[in-house]
Structures are given as C-alpha cells and as structure tokens.
Specification:
By secondary structure, this protein is an alpha+beta fold. A 3-stranded antiparallel beta sheet has the order 1-3-2. Helix 1 crosses helix 2. The model has no long low-confidence stretch (mean pLDDT 94). Pfam families: HTH_17.
Length: 60
Amino acid sequence: MRDDELLTVTEVMARLRVGRSTVYDLIRTRRLPSVTIGRCRRIPASALGDFIAGQMERAA
C-alpha cells in the first residue's frame, strides 16, 4: 500500500472487513479523513494506516 494512494470506500470496506455504513460513519464522524473528487469519495491510504494504528494503540 503506497502512502499517496487513494482508496475507494469499497477498498476500505475490504481492508477493514466492515460494511459500507461503517466506513461512511467513520468518515462522517471524522475518525477517517477523506476527500471528495467530483462525486467520488476517496480515502488516503496513509489516513487508513493512521486509523488502524490508532485503533491498535487503544486496544493495547
């Protein structure tokens, strides 16, 4: 996963193994940063990595 890569909501769903509504809830609550390009929502791979790292720290 490249840090400058932009992921689709579907790709994030697959990587986190969660549903679409969960991903959009993370975006809505600003726990997972995203950008909108036209009508498309994209999540920077680095933001997903930061989110996962934060979840791992909280679980430890």
